[in-house]
Amino acid sequence: MIYIKVKKITLIAIIIILTFTQIPTYTKVESSGNQEITKKRVNLTNTTSALQEKYSTYVDDSRKLYSGADILIDNIEGIVTDHKFLDVYDGKQVVRIDQNKEVTIRINAPESAFYNIGLSYIIDDQNVLPTQIEMQLNGQFPFYELRNLVFESKWKSPDVNPQDKYGNEIVPQPIKVIDWQEKYISDASYRSSEPFKIFLDKGENEISLKSTEGNLSFRSIRLSKPTELPNYEKAEVSGDNFIVIQGQDIAYRNDSSIRAGALFSVDLTPYQTDKRVLNYLDNQSFKRPGHLVEYEFEVNEPGFYYFGFDYRQNAKADFPVFVNIFINQGTPFQEFQNYPFHYTSKFRDVTVQDPVTKENIPIFLEAGQHTIGFAISLDHLKPTIESVERLINEIQSMSLEMTNLAGPNVDRHRDINVEEFIPGVTEQLFSWAEEMNELYEDLRVFNPTVNELGAFTSLKIAEKQVRSLANEIDKLLVRKNELATGTNSVTAYLGNLIQDINNNGLAINQFYFYQNQEDIPKRKGFFYKQFAKLERLVKSFGSQDYAVDNINPDHLQVWVNRPRQYIEIIQQLIDEQFTPQTGIKVDLSIMPDQNKLILANAANKAPDVAVGVNYALPFEIAIRGALQDLTEFEDFNEVKTRFPEGLHVPATVKDGIYALPDTMNFWVLFYRKDILDSLSLPVPDTIDQVRTYLPELQRRGMNFFYPTAGMAGLKIFAGTMPIIYQNGGRFYNETIGRTALNESASIEGMRQLTELFTIYNIPYDVPSFYQQFRDGSLPIGISDYFMYNLILNAAPEIANSWDIALMPGIKNANGEVERWSAGGAESNLIFKDSTKRDEAWEFLKWWSSTEVQIAFGNTLQTTYGEEYIWNTANMEAYAGLPWITAHKNVVIEQTEWLTEVPRVPGSYMLEREISNAYNSIILDGQNLRNAIDLASKRINRETLRKLEEFGYIRNGEFIEQYPNPEFTND
Q1: For residue 332, which phi and psi values (nearest 5 degrees)?
Q2: Number of neighbouring beta carbons within 10 Å of residue 376
Q3: In terms of Cα–Cα distance, which of 878, 804, 803 is closest to 148?
Q4: Can you give the pLDDT at residue 91?
Q5: Which residues of 17-37 are buried (b: 16+ CB within 10 A; e: fewer)?
Q6: Could you give the angle at which helices 490-501 and 457-471 cross, rounded to 10 degrees?
Q7: Per-residue pLDDT, 553
Q8: What is the DSSP string of 475-499?
Q9: CA angle at residue 711 from 766 to 497, to 5 degrees?
Q10: The predicted structure's pLDDT at residue 968
Q11: First to last CA, the chain
């Protein structure tokens, strides 16, 4: 009893300490009968940015620009400081930079001035990801953007488009071209098309290049002066020559995922009524700043030509997408730089014109082979992006000031005169609103014919919200979440704006060089289009591709719970590898609903194999006797080792295992490097360290995210299990008759989990960790693969400012940090009633093999882009997939602690009751032991009922004990 009292006193002390760390540092004193405001503000560091000098502030127009002739430095041996980096490639001496290696070179500049610095480089591996380089000049980063320089590879398509088994053309896997390329040091985000101007002192300068991803070899360096493009010259265009190039016939591109697409439109070439054919450049792939495509064409007659497009741009409503146009690797005129492609929801023809005079621009083409390229640019939007980023940082800083003033939870019934404590806050809000309005008006110059720019509505919404806050300044503290936290805050709208600006999808059907306008292809007429639609409708009543009713009894039937683009790649791999090797023919079908597999089996309509079903589903089917026990196959134990041991637990029923893992989830620590660095906080290794960080974070209005806060209603095992397991707890002992939730280790784990919220005040309800991670209010937290993919591909404004680490755990008695986490995702299974069980097993072995998983993951990502990163459960294959190397290493190490809660009769009640106990402790203040005791009674009652249902108990007596799969698999 004494211990309990002391413990309570300690907890109260902690609460007081945490409370007083958030008392505002503004005090009011009386002086000479008047109230004098003494402001003792916390020295708030802007922790939501990298605090690094941007290139736009680095460039100084007052300093000299180099104006001499190009300087080519090809004596590589003479400039590299360490000859171990020298190599020979293609008969020439090169400097090679491998992953995580750093090379230093010394170059002499003829004068102190700004230079463009270019490299002649080659990337000679098969890595899908571009090479990323850090560059330091004379021992430091002159500006922030040099921390991440991107050197892309070159990609091409095969000569013939592959077809699926139904005769539809599918997107071919691109081929990496190992060839020399020229590139100047430039912005990796491609906000500017111009190379960086880098200031070199006269004489020797030291440049250090470090590869953070991939490798790169270079054979020469070029120092150049910034170039100015000429304007086009007027000329007479005459003749009847016509050259057309199809948008899908891409010769080269700098991103493997740029691809052709297929649309059923009679205006596109080629077109078929009942088959998918690749007939345009897909705007879903050609969309990011810096994306480059090149085409090759032949000119028979030299002369002047006009240049026209048949395109569609529906990414930016009422606003153009800008493209740099290259002829033979160079931009011929100023007018071809940042050329606007205006919004259109349908394909339309335009001719490239002078933006001022609206006259068609003539281009002279010599006879022979030529190339033309298009690169998406953001030059005109760079000032907007940087202004929006600055606004986000300033608004976040004010939000932190208000949190310091009133604490994180504001009493809605307490009035605080904000102006009295933060003088000028009203003026500042109106100033931000005016700046947003000015940004919007500046953008209207690109389309003055419309009243509102649909692409920038989020900017107007943010402006109106700021004005609303300024007009009700007395309610500002109550409404402070509308500034910088939550999905509907001002910073959320501004962050989404940056994301929208980076989406520049441009679809191209064809482009052409013409001399006579009559040669431009005419659109199909109304009646022709209606007839084509009717023809398609009639043919749609026939058999559908990848439908479950396309059954050939001689073929293995496999249902796949994935989108069509996944299935096309799998079918192609089957046709190229599996069927030739085994002689087994396979029909893939898109799974209509995985939850109806039990009903399909009962109706004798189940497939032989199901791929990609939820990891918890195999137990529900297997316990009813509908699945094949995979341990009956002789080589199962060999196949089993491909996956983390813990992933087999959910598919285990007694001594049998009824599914193979297909993909895995992973839970890791996400953290903002810029914010932790500014607070001098190292990455936490344990939950105890996390607790020590909380006062420092919370007094700045920030906090830590734990996964249960993002789970609405039911807190699934992935959120509640980790800390319990890390404390040595379990939910069941060797058998499942009674839960072990109320044993000491599990209770301790539950206590530590709930005290994060009740004592240490981390948020228990976070609608969007993604959004608050972006805005910096939750700069650190635990999340999973889906968060990783989202941050990687949908948060460009914090690129290079975040990282992942191992999940913080709990030290055991031996001093080892236990980091147990969940990891179940999708599984593959075989139905017991299948007449082709041996063939089905051969298929699952082939599909889960290292070689096939690597081939599939590479093909998927190279074809469709980084957002299609494949999270295979085969760990050897995962190591060979194109993920960022440092992140991949973290995930591989974390999988050593990957496990799953067993799926057993009544385990759904276990998950539900742990969630109920969690909620009652945190939200209702219920005593922890009482909540766990009540939960345990309900779990045990439901477990006994389910054991009786499945025949393990009869008349209240155990006929057979049901073993805990966690112990079965040990």
Answers
A1: -70, -35
A2: 23
A3: 803
A4: 86
A5: ebeeebebebeeeeeeeeeee
A6: 160
A7: 87
A8: GTTTTTHHHHSSTTSHHHHHHHHHH
A9: 45
A10: 62
A11: 40
Reported as a single tens digit per residue, the pLDDT across 330-359 is 999 999 999 999 999 999 999 999 988 999
CA distance 74 to 618: 62
CA 304 vs. chain centroid, Å, equals 45
Handedness of CA 239, 245, 247, 252 (dihedral sign): negative
For the entire predicted model, the pTM comes to 0.86
Q: 223: which strand partners? A: 71, 117
pLDDT digits (tens, 9 = 90+) for 867-913: 899 999 999 999 999 999 999 999 999 999 999 999 999 999 999 99
630: left (phi over 0), alpha (psi -120 to 50) or beta: alpha
Q: Is the pLDDT of residue 404 over 80?
A: no
Calpha distance 389→855 (Å, rounded):
39
CA 342, chain centre distance (Å): 28
| Structure-block tokens of residue 476 | 């500002």
Residue 199 vs residues 112, 133, 313, 546: alpha-carbon distances, Å: 7, 19, 39, 59
Listed in sequence order, the DSSP H helices in 541-613 are 564-573, 579-582, 597-602
Rounded to an integer, what distance in angstroms lies between the CA atom of residue 577 and that of residue 737? 47
510, 505, 506: which is closest to 280 by C-alpha? 510
Task: Give 216-255 pLDDT, tens digit per residue.
Answer: 999 999 999 988 899 999 999 999 999 999 999 999 999 9
Q: Which positions ≥6 away from 922 have C-beta within 8 Å?
A: 754, 757, 758, 764
pLDDT of residue 499: 86
Q: What is the pLDDT of residue 29?
A: 31
pLDDT for position 7: 40
Closest to 392 (Cα-Cα) out of 382, 402, 404, 400? 400
Residue carrying structure tokens 């060797």: 734
- Residues 586 and 590: their CA atoms lie apart, in Å, by 13
What amino acid is encoded at 564 in this protein?
R
C-alpha to C-alpha distance for 513 and 604, rounded to whole angstroms: 60
Q: What is the DSSP letter of 140?
A: B
Per-residue burial over 875-895, b if 16 or more Cβ lie within 10 Å, else e, is bebbbbbbbbbebbebbeebb
> Tokens representing 345?
């929801």
pLDDT above 60 for 12: no
- Report pLDDT for 540: 66
In the numeric block, the tokens 């937290």 are attached to: 781
Cα–Cα distance, 958 to 946 (Å, whole number): 12
What is the torsion angle, in degrees rounded to the nearest 10, for the CA atoms of residue 10, residue 16, residue 22 and residue 26? -140
Distance CA 879, CA 9 (A): 50
Residue 144 pLDDT? 87
Retrieve residue 113's tokens: 């001035």
Asked whether the predicted pLDDT for residue 38 surpasses 60, the reply is no
Q: Which of the four pLDDT bands, split at 50, 70 and 90, describes residue 47?
A: very low
CA distance 245 to 613: 43
When pLDDT is cut at 50, 70 and 90, the band that residue 11 belongs to is very low
Phi, psi of 206 (to 5 degrees): -105, 125
Alpha-helix runs per DSSP H in 848-925: 850-864, 875-879, 885-894, 907-923
Tokens coding 670: 């996400």
Report pLDDT for 542. Answer: 63
| % of residues, the chain, pLDDT over 70 | 93
Q: What is the mean pLDDT of residues 594-613?
A: 90
Phi/psi for 225 (5° steps) reads: -90, 150
Q: Are 195 and 114 in contact (CB under 8 A)?
A: no
Tokens of 362: 């003539």
Structure tokens at 678: 């500014």
Would you state the pLDDT for residue 969?
53
Distance of CA 28 to the CA centre of its chain: 48
Helix (H, G, I), strand (E, B) or coil at 75: coil
Using the predicted structure, report yes or no on whether residue 6 has a pLDDT greater than 50.
Answer: no
